[in-house]
Write a structure and sequence with these properties.
By secondary structure, the chain is an alpha+beta fold. The protein has four domains: about 60-240, Heat Shock Protein 90; about 250-395, Ribosomal Protein S5, domain 2 (2-Layer Sandwich), CATH 3.30.230; about 415-545 and about 590-635, Rossmann fold (3-Layer(aba) Sandwich), CATH 3.40.50; about 550-580, no CATH class. The chain is about 35% helix and about 20% strand. A hairpin with a 2-residue loop joins strand 3 (about 160-170) and strand 4 (about 170-180).
Length: about 625
């Protein structure tokens, strides 16, 4: 997948000196002048006014973030899908329609809601003119999910085919667009048997997205989240229905399971008009949260999530009349929180993090009171929680002694992290912080290629010296006893939780051979055992590098699979084929292509947290005979 796309040159940029000559002044120095004959290159003809939809197509990233090919749940095609479904959910929230039908066939999307329907006389404007819509009217949409007048227009602009039909009181209006241009319009027709609502059909434009495919598993997960956030709403994907009666409690139980061995105590659950949350404790370390604002999944959290964490701590301390440490109360917690706000402020157009500071007070107070009430009513849960906190406190104190020794040893070895080649900007920096990436490489040879071709401003390198220890089934003290794992944790900055993470992307860059795959599995086991929240939040990736180079004197093709290699062999005459076994075999000049604008990354995702321990047990546990039998049966 492509994580960054080269943008076109800005239409409003000027070449050469912008100061015009009056014909008598001395010419400017050559380095400040335009090339001879181009003094008037910046004139009235270069000033252009783009329509709303033209601007969306030109500056796609401003509206939907990344593009991608559908292999990542954050890719642009899913943002388009989300924007249309958001509008359907908004209808449900206002009390109109309890059903949303979604169909995806051959990458064509069809979404039918049964809400009030777009007013027929404003249909074209509502899907083609930015800043047009009812989301600005608080009397109609108090807790809007959609992009406040942008979302559907972006879908229209970025689709090679877009059709919208509004049904109201037995009548309909229809508009058909191609890449944002209106091709056909029916202003009013009769549809006596059609219930009120809106139908949207679209196909993402290959000119924008290239080759892509919808991953239905990603879509199913989104619809399940919608159902849990809107009890009573029924969503269907290609006929399969998604409905929740217990809200976030259903979402939490789906994620962590209902196995008594996995869950420490009965999950707490609270729901009011503006706030809903559920949480429990599971076996493991760290904190894992799923947070939402007006139905939008905020993968990077924000003020509502931090307020929820604070409210849980205050509620526990008030109930037990203690002053527990927040780490002891929350270590091993898995929680979900959703809030409804009239004017949410997000830190980006794609709404990954809430920025409202005014919500903290009431969320903390409501969560605290709800936690106290829950513990009063559930004595068994209170007793289990008290025991868990006491156990966490003991483990933390035992761990502190190991931490102190490990840090003393680290200081003796080197002032700096010996495995780290750091970059200039880090996560949280205003300038290029979101671009910050740490490549975890296998050995010095691979690191050499990356170090020579990386962008030192945003790309850091962590060099693995040997294979990391298998972390499965080991306590957290092992991180401090193992020099390599300790240095990796400190390089990432996650010793005290994900809030200290120094890089937006953590990329596993291992060789495409048996040893490389083994190291990758060991690293994933490390993250899933000690820092699962890092994976849940979508920060861990796997780097794809080409397996083959097919070239002759005129052209070169890099291939990521045998299928691509075979296709290249048919196009290139008299080719030379190189099989890349290790990253160190790729020259720095070549490698720069694969970690630059056209980098291919696969995000590591978790379908269900409850399945993680079972997966790790099978692949990384002590059941060697079973694993050997499985490998022999599936050996290609």
């Amino acid at each position: 997948m492509t994580t960054a796309t080269a943008q076109q040159n800005d239409l409003f940029s000027a070449k050469g000196d912008s100061k015009k000559s009056n014909g008598t002044s001395k010419p400017a120095p050559a380095k400040k002048r335009a090339r001879k004959g181009n003094e008037d290159v910046y004139d009235e003809s270069k000033i252009k006014t783009l329509s709303s939809l033209e601007h969306i197509r030109l500056r796609t990233g401003m509206y939907i973030g990344r593009l991608g090919d559908g292999s990542d749940p954050d890719d642009g095609i899913y943002v388009l899908l989300k924007e249309v479904i958001d509008n359907a959910v908004d209808e449900f929230i206002t009390g109109h329609g309890r059903k949303v039908d979604v169909t995806i066939e051959d990458n064509c999307v069809r979404i039918r809601d049964f809400g009030s329907g777009i007013p027929l006389g404003k249909l074209v404007e509502c899907v083609s003119v930015i800043n047009t819509g009812a989301k600005y009217n608080d009397e109609i949409y108090q807790f809007s999910v959609g992009l406040n007048g942008v979302g559907t227009k972006a879908v229209n602009a970025l689709s090679d085919q877009f059709r919208v039909v509004a049904y109201r009181k037995g009548q309909f209006a229809e508009a058909i667009f191609e890449r944002g241009d209106l091709k056909k319009e029916t202003k009013k027709g009769k549809a006596p048997k059609e219930p009120d609502g809106t139908l949207v059909e679209f196909h993402p434009d290959p000119e924008i997205f290239g080759e892509f495919d919808f991953n239905l598993e990603f879509v199913q997960r989104r619809l399940w989240n919608y159902a849990c956030l809107n009890s009573g709403l029924v969503l269907a994907l290609n006929g399969q229905k998604y409905e929740s009666k217990k809200g976030l409690l259903d979402l939490l139980q789906r994620e962590v399971g209902t196995d008594e061995d996995a869950v420490t105590y009965t999950p707490a659950h609270f729901r009011s008009e503006r706030l809903e949350f559920a949480f429990t404790h599971v076996e493991g370390y760290g904190e894992t949260y799923w947070s939402f604002v007006n139905g939008q999944y905020t993968s990077d959290g924000g003020t509502h999530q931090s307020a929820f964490r604070e409210g849980v701590l205050k509620g526990v301390n008030e109930f037990f009349r203690k002053a527990y440490n927040g780490v002891d109360v929350r270590d091993g917690i898995a929680g979900a929180v959703a809030v409804k706000l009239m004017e949410p402020v997000f830190e980006s157009q794609t709404k990954n993090k809430l920025g409202n500071t005014d919500v903290r007070g009431w969320i903390v107070n409501d969560v605290k009171e709800a936690v106290v009430d829950f513990l009063h009513k559930n004595k068994a849960a209170a007793d289990s929680l008290e025991q868990r906190v006491a156990n966490n406190e003991k483990l933390r104190k035992d761990l502190n002694a190991v931490k102190k020794e490990a840090k003393e040893n680290a200081r003796k070895i080197s002032i700096k992290n010996p495995n780290l080649r750091d970059c200039k900007y880090h996560l949280g920096d205003r300038k290029r912080g979101d671009e910050s990436t740490l490549f975890i490489t296998e050995g010095q040879s691979a690191a050499g290629s990356i170090v020579s071709s990386r962008d030192p401003n945003t790309q850091g390198i962590f060099v693995m010296t040997g294979k990391p220890q298998n972390a499965f089934g080991r306590g957290k003290a092992e991180v401090y006893k193992n020099e390599l794992l300790f240095n990796l944790m400190m390089a990432l900055g996650v010793e005290d939780g994900i809030d200290g993470l120094r890089y937006n992307k953590v990329v596993l860059a291992t060789d495409a051979d048996v040893d490389g795959f083994h190291i990758r599995n060991l690293l994933l086991t490390f993250f899933l055992t000690y820092f699962e929240d890092l994976v849940v939040a979508g920060h861990v990736y796997i780097l794809e590098t080409p397996l083959f180079r097919v070239r002759n004197k005129k052209s070169t093709a890099y291939c990521y699979s045998e299928k691509e290699r075979d296709a290249a062999l048919k196009k290139i005459k008299g080719p030379e084929v190189t099989r890349f076994k290790g990253l160190g075999e790729i020259s720095p000049k070549e490698f720069g292509q694969f970690i630059g604008d056209q980098i291919k990354l696969v995000k590591v995702t978790i379908d269900k947290m409850s399945a993680v321990s079972q997966t790790l047990e099978f692949y990384m546990g002590k059941n060697t005979p079973e694993r050997r039998e499985y490998i022999m049966e599936h050996l290609a």
